[in-house]
Amino acid sequence: MTATSDKTLGFILKGYPRLSETFILNEILLLERLGFKLHIIAMRNPGEATVHESVRKVRGQVTYIPDYFWPFFFAFIKANVKLWWRKPGVYWSAFSFALLRSLRQFSSSTIKRFAQAAYLVENHLSRNGRFARLDVAHWHAHFSHGPTTVAFFASWLTGITYSFSAHAKDIYLQERDFLRDKIARARFVVTCTEFNKNYLQEVAGNAAPVFRCYHGLNLDAFEIPLKARGNPIPNILSVGRFVPKKGFLILIQALRRLRQQGLKFHCRLVGSGPMKEELRRQISALQMADCIELVAPMPQNALLEYYRETDLFALACEVQEDGDRDGIPNVLVEAMAMGIPIVSTAISGIPELVEEGVNGLLVPEKNANALAEAMAKLLRQPELAQRIGSAGRAKVENEFDALHNVEKIGALLRGAMNGQRLSEAALLHKSANTSCLNDISHRLQMEAATIDL
């Protein structure tokens, strides 16, 4: 399956490559497999010591634009002045919008993203007043805050259309009026849960072109171990950034209750982040250091070895007071793909993945007692754990296959790159008959519509 043209898709990211954003890397690789020519525009290089091996398989060129204003002050000023000189009317209208919003918000964020967009346009798109260096036919940004703001202004300054993928924190911590503006100007919006989709349509109106496409996995890499689970001392695993919304403090409290019930286990918490030392102190204070281990983040191929040894996966996600929350954590999908029984919380999009009592157990957020009871239930009932693990694998196979979901995104992008608005009926037809992918854009209707994939 190939794309319909050699046009370039500008893929705007906050950071690249990032160990925690496996789902974006998988999407890039699958879009290239579908024939898209990508040019990755990243606002920073995270400089992480460990990266996924599959980063080397990405064919698209990567361009970095400065994310720090003052060290590149003169470069930003030069690019903005040159663009203003060439296109004063367009430049001034976009600049005025950015400046006024920054003043209203008492924040330099919007004007900074505008300056980045102008830098991108002038230094990487223009040549002698024409847009030629990067022959970008469409922008697509991941995360609806900073990267989409750059796409928003790059589109304003060039007339090149854009779309974006919205995920979790970027949705719920963003001021609604600006989010509404971004959705209104976008050719389409993709989000990874039905919960997110409903919220975005509430913000922008039900007619907004918001599409739900789950993050998926390459299931070939997630093979269930041949040997039956059931270690003499069960292995419990949890993976995520050490930040409040992941609920690791609650999980540690729940693990202490398991020990108080006489259950033996070894638990690995894999991740890093600002709460690392706080977690270490809590583990020490509760005298749990002999059975809870903090493990540094690792690439997916190494994490797979941990999954193979795991008897139970737990993730105690919670909603923060400021609204920050997860969507559907990818590690839950990964654990279920490996046939591991899981326990998590009934927030946000998690119930779309985990059906209580069928393919996992769900408990109320911020409730260590309930979390401990659910984990104990699975540890004490191996037959139930095995049944739930098998059902979890089936759920992922049916709804979270990466290629199937990226094909939907590919059809949306192909339509946008051909200057077409997308209809629900056309994309549903594509979803039912993927052999039509190459020519689906020619059958897309011209009106915008919502979709329930």
Strand neighbour order, sheet with most strands: 3-2-1-6-7-8-9
The number of helical elements comes to 17
Report the C-alpha radius of gyration, rounded: 23 Å
What low-confidence regions span 5 or more consecutive residues with pLDDT below 50?
128-132, 432-453
- The total strand number stands at 15
End-to-end separation in angstroms reads: 21 Å
CATH architecture classification of the largest domain: 3-Layer(aba) Sandwich
Number of domains: 2
- Roughly what percent helix? 40-55%
Describe this structure in words.
By secondary structure, the chain is α/β, with parallel strands linked by helices. It is built from 17 helices and 15 strands. The strands form three sheets. It has a seven-stranded parallel β-sheet, with helices on both faces. Strands 12-11-10-13-14-15 form a six-stranded parallel β-sheet, sandwiched between helices. A two-stranded antiparallel ribbon has the order 4-5. Helix 5 (146-158) links the parallel strand 6 and strand 7. The two termini are 21 Å apart.
